[in-house]
């Protein structure tokens, strides 16, 4: 159990580092970018912000990573954050729907099998 607690965060961090979500190099403009206000009154688009299909797919297959990326990016890059969040949300909805369908199928099959 302790090995899982150590390995999972390392794997998540490695994936985030490989896709570029985490940057270990010091960026002198990071403070300036972090303090840029984003919202309805923002007069010009955020640089390097665009919807990303890759982050949506990552969020779909690993929903917790999509949620973490959404929380981290919702202020700095809202379009990219929305892509990761949508992928995670769609994944959760699909998983819930498949679980409900599988429970219904199991109940129906168990009722049909009990007649013999």
Tell me what the structure shows:
The chain is mainly α and 116 residues long. It is elongated and about 65 Å long. It is built from five helices and no strands. The protein has one domain (2-24, 45-113).
Concise description?
By secondary structure, the chain is mainly alpha-helical.
Structural class: mainly alpha
- What is the 3D shape? elongated
| Strand portion | under 5%
Number of strands: 0
By DSSP (H or I, 4+ residues per run), the number of helices equals 5
How many structural domains in the coordinates?
Answer: 1
Q: Taking all residues together, what is the mean pLDDT?
A: 76
Helix content: 55-70%
Report how far apart the termini are: 44 Å
Flag low-confidence runs.
30-35
SSE pattern: HHHHH
Largest sheet: none
Name the features:
single chain; 116 residues; mainly alpha; 0% strand; elongated
Annotate the secondary structure layout.
Elements: H1 2-18, H2 30-34, H3 53-61, H4 63-73, H5 78-113
């Amino acid at each position: 159990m302790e090995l899982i607690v150590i390995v999972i965060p390392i794997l998540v961090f490695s994936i985030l580092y490989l896709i570029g979500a985490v940057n270990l190099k010091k960026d002198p403009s990071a403070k300036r970018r972090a303090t840029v206000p984003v919202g309805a009154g923002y007069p010009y688009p955020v640089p390097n912000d665009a919807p990303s299909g890759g982050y949506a797919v990552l969020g779909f297959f690993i929903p917790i990573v999509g949620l973490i990326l959404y929380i981290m990016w919702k202020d700095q890059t809202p379009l990219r954050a929305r892509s990761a969040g949508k992928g995670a949300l769609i994944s959760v909805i699909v998983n819930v729907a498949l679980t409900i369908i599988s429970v219904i199928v199991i109940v129906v099959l168990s009722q049909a099998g009990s007649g013999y």
